[in-house]
Design goal:
There is one protein chain. With 347 residues, the chain is α/β, with parallel strands linked by helices. It has one domain (5-345): Alpha-Beta Barrel (TIM Barrel). The chain has 16 helices and nine strands. It has helices spanning 5-9, 11-16, 37-42, 48-51, 55-68, 82-86, 108-112, 123-136, 148-157, 165-173, 175-199, 216-235, 252-257, 271-278, 297-311, 331-345, and strands spanning 74-75, 91-94, 98-101, 141-146, 203-207, 241-244, 262-264, 283-288, 317-321. Strands 1-4-5-6-7-8-9 form a seven-stranded parallel beta sheet. Helix 9 crosses helix 11 and helix 11 runs parallel beside helix 12 (216-235). The longest helix is centred in the middle third of the chain and has 25 residues, at 175-199. It is globular, with a radius of gyration of 19 Å. The N and C termini lie close together (11 Å). It binds coproporphyrinogen I. Coproporphyrinogen I is lined by residues 29-34, 43, 48, 75, 77, 79-80, 93, 95, 98-99, 144, 150, 160, 207, 209, 324.
């Protein structure tokens, strides 16, 4: 069965809202980016943060995977660090490394530098979202922002970190400073999501990618209040809210409590078990291991069908990978996977 664009349009938002769908919708985290030759071409000679501030490039790069794959949603091309750059944090995204902060935040004076984000700080985001809504002709656009723990980790460590040691030291040892920093980051995330939805984004995802490093009791005390506030303040905008992190098997129940409509699950917990941990009233998103795409097709097919079967235990299911597309992934395998998800799940 070929699922044409029109039939596809409703499925993503319906699945997020736990309504009946004609097929399981699918999109891929990091579907734009280094796995696509046309992305590398568009980015030639343009630094990452410069690309994120140019509406023409944002529109082009966001559209690239939508042209290639029968995905049910587009994700806005940007980065979780963009709003921080926009309020004046001195940072760059170093090729092959990730975000690098010139002057890491380690004290109250540092936290105080994180002023609120206003829409005028990111006019290129509003402009690009408006352009995309026209180009996408009905395919929903997902806006996104970083979760507060993940943003705090980059700011405190000064760059990517394996153990998040300084971050956790502040969380454990300086609770007032931690709460101040997390509160300011939550405000920035709320404002950045509002900009995207106001300009026309149909859903939002909060990427708290590294929050799986936190134990459940600490998540409840030191992260959940901030994440809950983000989802509560976004609720009035009326768009589905997705909440994702990596290695969050032990946090899935608390992530359910945080208030999003959809909980993103990495590949470590099967979706039927994840549905049990998250509890009722939520849709799930996930969770094929991105590394499976390097195995022979019959393995990809069997594993993708297993994800679909287990996803039926959830009240709504958006098919995705368990984390972002790896850079050396063959785009043709992703194209085939999107078609397989539609064909194998057609009701
Ligand atoms: O030059 C390049 O191409 C830089 C690579 C790159 C790209 C393509 C970075 C640097 N960011 C992005 C785009 C990006 N970032 C998207 C785009 C759209 C899509 O999904 O199609 C998204 C959603 C993000 C969000 C993001 N940035 C996250 C959350 C998602 C995740 O993967 O968990 C995180 C953790 C970042 C930080 C970041 N930015 C870039 C890198 C390499 C990293 C990770 C660094 C690290 O390992 O800590």
């Amino acid at each position: 069965m070929v699922v044409n664009g029109d039939a596809r349009h409703g499925a993503f938002l319906k699945a997020c809202r736990r309504e009946p769908v004609p097929h399981t919708p699918v999109w891929f985290m990091r579907q734009a980016g280094r796995s696509l030759p046309e992305y590398l071409k568009a980015r030639e000679g343009v630094a990452m943060l410069e690309a994120c501030a140019r509406p023409d490039l944002i529109v082009e790069i966001t559209m690239q995977p939508v042209r290639r794959y029968a995905v049910d949603a587009a994700i806005f091309f940007s980065d979780i660090m963009v709003p921080l750059k926009a309020i004046g944090v001195d940072l760059e995204i170093a090729p092959g490394v990730g975000p690098v902060i010139a002057d890491p935040i380690r004290d109250a004076a540092g936290a105080a530098r994180l002023r609120p984000l206003v829409p005028e700080d990111v006019p290129y985001v509003s402009e690009a979202v408006r352009g995309l809504v026209g180009e996408l002709r009905g395919t929903p656009l997902i806006g996104f922002a970083g979760g507060p723990f993940t943003l705090a980790s980059y700011l405190i460590e000064g760059g990517p970190s394996k153990n998040h040691d300084r971050t956790k030291a502040m969380m454990y040892g300086e609770p007032a400073l931690w709460a101040e920093l997390m509160g300011r980051l939550a405000d920035i995330t709320i404002a950045f999501l509002k900009v995207q939805v106001t300009a026309g984004a149909s859903a939002v995802q909060v990427f708290d990618s590294w929050v799986g490093a936190v134990a459940p009791e600490d998540y409840r005390a030191s992260v959940l209040p901030h994440t809950s506030r983000i989802f509560a303040e976004i609720e009035a905008l009326g768009v589905p809210r997705i909440h994702f992190g990596v290695g969050t098997g032990e946090l899935l129940g608390l992530m359910g409590e945080a208030g999003a409509d959809v909980v993103g699950v990495d590949w470590r917990v099967p979706l039927d078990e994840a549905a049990r941990r998250v509890g009722p009233g939520k849709a799930l998103q996930g969770n094929l291991d991105p590394a499976i795409l390097f195995a022979p097709w019959d393995v990809v097919e069997r594993r993708a069908k297993d994800v679909l079967a287990r996803g039926r235990a959830a009240e709504g299911h958006v098919f995705n990978l368990g984390h972002g597309v790896l850079p050396s992934t063959d785009p043709d395998v992703l194209a085939r996977l999107a078609d397989l998800v539609h064909e194998a799940s057609a009701r």
